Amino acid sequence: MTEQAHRIELTVNGTLHVADAPARRLLSDFLRHDLGLTGTHVGCEHGVCGCCTVLLDGEPVRSCLTFAVTVTGRAVTTVEGLAAPDGTMSPVQRAFQKCHALQCGFCTPGFLCTVTALLRDTPHPTEEEVIEGISGNLCRCTGYQNIVKAVHRAAALIAEEAR
Amino acid sequence: MSTRIFGEGIARREDPRLLTGQGRYLDDLGRDALAAAFVRSPHAHARIIDIDVTGALDVEGLVAVYTWEDLPGRVAEPLPLLIPHPALTHGRTGYALARDTVRHVGEPVVMVVARDRYLAEDAAERVRVEYETLPPVVGVEAAERAEHLVHDDVPGNVGAVLRQETGDVEAALAAAPHVLEFRLDIERSAATPLEGRGVHARWDADDGSLRVHSSTQTATSVRAAIAVKLGLPQGKVEVVAPDVGGGFGVKIVHPWPEEVLVPWAARLLGREVKWTEDRREHFVAAAHERAQVQHVRVGFDGAGRVLALDVRILHDHGAYTPYGVIIPIVTSTQLLGPYKIGVYRAEVVSLYTTTLIVTPYRGAGRPQGVFCMERTMDRIAAHLGRDRAGVRAANLIGPDEFPYDQGLTFQDGRPLIYDSGDYPALLAKVTDLIGWDGFPALKEAAAAEGRRIGIGLACYVEGTGVGPYEGGHVEIDSSGRVHVATGLTSQGQGHQTVFAQIAAAELGVPVEDVHVVTGDTRRFGYAVGTFASRAAVMSGNAIALACRRVRAKALRIAGEALEADPSDLDITDGVVHVRGDRSSGIPLRTVSVLSNPLRYAFDEQTALATQFAVGGPDTEPPVPHGEEPGLEGRDYYSPVRSTFAAGMHAAIVETDPDTAEIRVLRYAVVHDCGRLINPLVVEGQIHGGVAQGIGGALYERMAYDESGQLLNASFMDFLMPYATEVPRVETDHLETPSPLNPLGIKGAGEAGVIPVSAVIAAAVEDAEGIAITAMPLSPDALFRLRRTQPGALPPSDVGR
Q1: How many CA atoms lie within 13 A of B514 on its CB side?
Q2: What residues of chain A, 44 to 73, have a C-beta less than 8 Å from chain B?
Q3: Do A32 and B28 touch (CB under 8 A)?
Q4: Does any domain span residue A86?
Q5: Is residue A41 part of a domain?
Q6: Stretch B558-578: mean pLDDT, rounded?
């Protein structure tokens, strides 16, 4: 029994990667184990926890529910691609540190990707919009309170830096 | 303390790495490792008749398949019983791979190793195991009836009977003016960290040594266990806890079957082997907690003072008892909370069931004990028609009564003596914060609008910082960097920050210069582990003591160089100087160089310490008698007994008159964990604890059916709260320093979760006027309660 491999061409964080993988290879495993980008985490493998959230052409998706072969030719942003090229953390990343919005850090990459897209689409979210916006991601450490605070702070930082 | 860094809410040092995807969790390691997968029992109780692996052999990439019969020597023996106790008369543990009987769904039966995890699972799927099913035993009451046995040689399914008493409780009950008797139920829940367990092992055949990474709460003890199991000297085994994606207690259990088998297979195969637990495995093969049935008898006077309390608890410990009777001990001792109880007796019967093992999950038996005591306080208040806060106040230990001896034995084997606290002050703060006295008016106004709201309150005392010890090693190198190591592990508590704050304050150096390593046996070999809210107390104090040694040595060396009396010296921003005079001084990096007399130089700094550069009398050895080279120090902190943190929570809930949905409108926490090292981190611990408590109170349960199948073994069905379910937590602190340790600190890790079920039950009871005796409480359970007990709160099953 030899599995057929498929050529996958995927732009990840601005760099084109070409690799062969079986059709059943999950995007999360492809990123982590084939490309070595282990910042994307896998918490449940059934699409509930949100740890594996990445941006696919800018939109948040569960990489554990996505086969890598189905996204060939497209562009993915992972947590490794959120900081500026010079390494400066993005406003969302900085706000998470400032507000103590992470503890063990395992769910954090998923939250960061989700919030990055949320604030791009809704730059000035209300409290309800923030809570709704992160309601697809589980965190077992923080109780979410500081994550909510961090989203508001990130929104303020983005607005400030756009001025 | 020479700087104010201790007590500051500084941002965490570990965050930039974790925020940019540079964390290193277990599954991020060993990219080329072989992958292990396990065939696990689909039955709750069965005899293994036959295992046929031939189907698996066709899978391309298969490397090995192992059953119990393949295991040699100690690998084939039962796993260790970690904490023996005289009350645990019938302790039993499982095997790394099931020998001939399985006793819970998820028990490992066959190990498969293949080129990657996909292929390992393909092969595991093709292994055929033939079972003869045996009768399941599900739930403590079935266990107690003992119509069927979980272990043939354990009569009545009783693993342990733990009794503690402070006097003649029957006489005290007989003499009490009022007596109530009732039953309480708590269901199973689990820690459920977002990263499951995992092990990676690499055998170095040339060196005869093993390096193991495990997502564990105790690296040193995993090392000891692996060394024993594999017959290796401890010095040939290194265990490292990498970044750990949450623990909450479940990862203190060790050695897991996988922690023995993966290193064993790595040595046998001469290849790196890795196993990463998946979510379903975590539900059925890690550990659960909480489930108890409690029978309470309480005698009290007209003021609500408890004169006699008798509790009999049935505790479900699952199929095996690797962690002994720690949860029964904690429940039955911490049940007493901040109260003076006339006469107390507790009997915990710890029972085998054919379900997953039960070991500590954040709170570790305390949520159940607090539920019992706080429900009792509310019952007393209802019976007497008194204010619930007032009844509690009547029973509190006074601030001038410390140290307070409860007359029992705690989980460290030491007397249950509370070190310090101010419980009336906590009660005043929490009732102020939630607006206790003004609530009746709010409730009335809500009722006028057809809304049901209720208020609840619960108190706890938490024994934290249990021994036996932790250690710290501190070294200042010739660049001025301060390297701190401690053996216990981290799972998100911010140790790299708070331990750096302690070291910076003790040494007088910038916190940025301090670098902390935890959970790595290569850096520190003696440790116990991270559990029982002990890390800050134990390692924090050990690191402080080690820093004090280093500081004394630095002042001694600098004193010689500056021709000053060391007692006149201070250290500021990493420079040793005469106190009050910073114009001249000597940086710690130079002191470090001077501490290590050299023959060879490597740079300008080290040239200062070579033999022709250093002066000094010819009659003295370069390293003085009683000294060691290097600016480093090691020390240990080993307490006589635990410290006792305390807190009180209060909540206002609203219940929907039609759907019985329960909403938490406000949640208030006051908390006393002694001196705060970093308030930001402490608040974070409280928020997270409360969120887990809300999960345990309203959503999370392990739904075993009567055949012992776990029906909700996924995040689709086991309902962990999202941001939409967790209330905003309002906090206030009190700081009564512990007199037991140099830093005056107590632990904070578990506190948030402990009283939540009791608070929510009390608040819903207040909103509904229906007795709440079981947790968790879902809307459908509340809906059913409304139909079965409409009207007033029944005072108790038996009362006078």
Answers
A1: 29
A2: 44-46, 48-49, 51
A3: yes
A4: no
A5: yes
A6: 95
Domain B32-134+191-285 has CATH 3.90.1170.50: yes
- Average pLDDT of the residues in B143-170: 97
Residue B326: alpha-carbon gap to chain centroid: 12
A139 with A71, same domain: the answer is no
Here the tokens at position B125 are: 């799927």
**Please, where are the H alpha helices in B251-349?**
257-269, 279-285, 326-334
Closest Cα of chain B to A89: distance in Å? Answer: 8
Name which of B31, B681, B715 is nearest A44 (Cβ-Cβ): B715
Question: Given this chain, do its domains B361-466+640-795 and B469-636 carry the same CATH topology?
Answer: yes
Which DSSP category does A3 fall into? P
Structure tokens, B634? 């090691």
Is the sign of the CA dihedral A135, A140, A141, A143 positive or negative? positive
Residues 19-48 of B with CB under 8 A from A: 19-25, 27-28, 31
Tell me the residue range of the domain where A77 lies. 5-81
ipTM: 0.98
What CATH number corresponds to the domain at position A29?
A: 3.10.20.30
Minimal CA separation from A112 to chain B, in Å: 8
B573 burial class (0-12, 13-18, 19+ CB within 10 angstroms)? middle
The answer on A119 and A71 residing in a single domain is no
With residue A18 as reference, give the H or E element that holds it. strand A15-22
Q: pLDDT per residue over B282-323, tens digit each?
A: 999 999 999 999 999 999 999 999 999 999 999 999 999 999
Q: Select from A103, A131, A142 the Cβ nearest to the Cβ of B724.
A: A131
**How far is B41 from B98, CA to CA, in rounded Å?**
9
Residue entry with tokens 């307070």: B404
Peptide bond before residue B403 is cis, with ω within 30 degrees of 0: yes
**Mean pLDDT confidence for B544-557:** 97
Check CB contact under 8 Å for B195 and A106.
Answer: yes
Task: Provide the CATH topology of domain B361-466+640-795.
Answer: Aldehyde Oxidoreductase; domain 4 (3.30.365)
This prediction has a pTM of 0.96
pLDDT tens by residue, A92-124: 999 999 999 999 999 999 999 999 999 999 999
Do residue A129 and residue A75 come from a single domain?
no
Average pLDDT, chain B: 95
Q: Which of B716, B408, B422, B678 is nearest to B535 (CA)?
A: B678
- Domain definitions of chain B by residue range: 32-134+191-285, 361-466+640-795, 469-636
Determine the Cα–Cα distance for residues B717 and B280; give it in Å rounded to an integer: 11
Q: Which residues of B touch A137 (CB under 8 A)?
A: 722-723
**Secondary structure E strands in B205-248:** 209-214, 237-240
Cβ of residue A39 closer than 8 Å to a chain B Cβ: yes
Rounded to the nearest 5 degrees, what angle is found at the Cα of B566, between the Cα atoms of B560 and B567? 165
* Chain B CA closest to residue A32: B28
